[in-house]
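#struct-help
A.M.: can someone run this one for me? Single chain, 149 residues.
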Amino acid sequence: MALIDLIEEAVIKAPMAATTKEEAVRELVETLFAAGKIVDKNTAINAILDREAKGSTGLEDGIAVPHGKTLAARELTVAIGISPKGIEFGSMDGKPTRLFFLLLAPPDVTGPHIAALADIARLSRSKALCSALMECRSPGEVLKLLKDD
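D.P.: on it. Structure tokens below:
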């Protein structure tokens, strides 16, 4: 299953209200919970924050890919978040993060999890697409941009 197949308006948070790393993780996990994609918010939040404690998933150019494995996820799932102002996320280039791809997968799901990370890596190489995504102000705008690309 391709990453794009996991994306629907219900798993997109644009714009995000969060102003800190932990708030961003919580907001995106809440989005997945509200969409019925995970069964336990706290377990999912802890899985992401535990992974972040090992090293930030903040990349460069305003992109972060927080991810984790947890029994709270029945299958691979993704949430996308857009922070208009950006959030300090411990990025490799020291710049605020504006585009988030949060991934959760069950502990025994490795292949799809790795494939989704690879899809995000490919997508993040398109500076034009990422810049356009960062300017989106609604889930519908994000979805249209990703589905039309």
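A.M.: thanks! Residues 21-34 form the longest helix (14 residues).
D.P.: also worth noting: Residues 84 and 98 are 6 Å apart (CA to CA).
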